[in-house]
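REVIEWER CHECKLIST
Item 1: Sequence provided? yes
Item 2: Single chain? yes
Item 3: Sequence as submitted:
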Amino acid sequence: MSRNWTTLAGLRSLSASAWERGQLLREAMEPTEAYPRRRALKRPSAAELRDDYAAARKWAAELFAAAGPYSLETVDVGRTTIGSNHLPAAAVFARVEDEIAFVGRNRELGQFRSRAAALAALDPALRAWALKRPLQLLALGDAALTAARVALWLRENPGPGIYLRQLSLPGVHTKFIETHRRVIDEMLAVLQHRPPEDDLLERGAAASDGAVSDDDGLLLSPIARTPAARFAERHGFLHPPELVRFRLLDPEIPLLGDARDVMVTAEAFSTLRLPVTSVLVTENLVNFLALPDRPRSLALFGAGYGFSSLRDAEWIRDCEVLYWGDLDTHGFRILDQLRSVHPHVSSILMDEATLLAHREAWGVEESPSRAHLARLTAEEAEVYESLGNNRYGNGVRLEQELIRWDWALERLAAGPI
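Item 4: Structure as written out by the authors:
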């Protein structure tokens, strides 16, 4: 016989679920009219009692034996069949503390109350955060108080204009802030009596296809790309400048002595005045290093969707720009975003002929882009759509470093200058 009677373990599971949702701690901190709380029990029917009296008796005895944290309401079952039997119908917890004791969390309750009181002592407004995140307060321990001190400091020092490293608070260092930035943001929002801000870029990075949307592309956004850098920027801290790495492919153009491979800040890159007419962007380091000499040309080492360094480099508008990315949907998506700033960019080695000539090197793109790309040429759009529609095969992609070097050199040499 299949039984769905609420056992002692089942009752404990109901209370444990309320604990895991933070309901019990919230009730302990800010009581409502939820208690006494009555938790209904699924019990044997009269027929089940008649057919398996021993099992029903054992079930009831277990619940009666564990009573203490709760009391039991009973109902009379089987009066007209096998005689009157009083079976448990509901467990009643008089206080939330009784239900917390039932799930064995008395020690955690004491810790929670102590830490919530410590937060409120720093600022009464922080009580609201403890009420919203009771389990997180338990998990954080003393780190919650340290995070609260950072939030209080930020409230009193908006736009500090220093590096996180320079924040002189006991127990606070860059790693701590990076690890607890969400908690700090939430606490600061509570202290400022405003809703917490959504970190839109961070949500975008977790989008279904693993890439940012066209409208929120990192190409057009500030240079703070990582969550930690966005936290620093949001609160007015300084963060290290973005660096741009480039190689002069023309040995006749003087730079810094014999230096040809140079890394500068994005701001400095935007001010360059070099006698170059061609810029070749590649995302693969070995390709970047192996590119041959080329008159009046500069090679730029890209970084996926992070082309914000090109946003302010207006001198590039006077150069031809060639983009060499992976032959997959995200390679074309990066190309599309690059054209949102520099519409005259041309792609190279991102064509169907190159793809088909390297079948043996094809890999699989796990999360292809499904975005509509409006800045591709007709030929590029056809390859992009064919990749997305699996016309060449399931999730086909060709990484640029797997293209035969002789094939690449021939097409690079034939490309415009």
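Item 5: Key structural point noted by reviewer: The longest helix spans residues 106-122.
Item 6: Recommendation: ____
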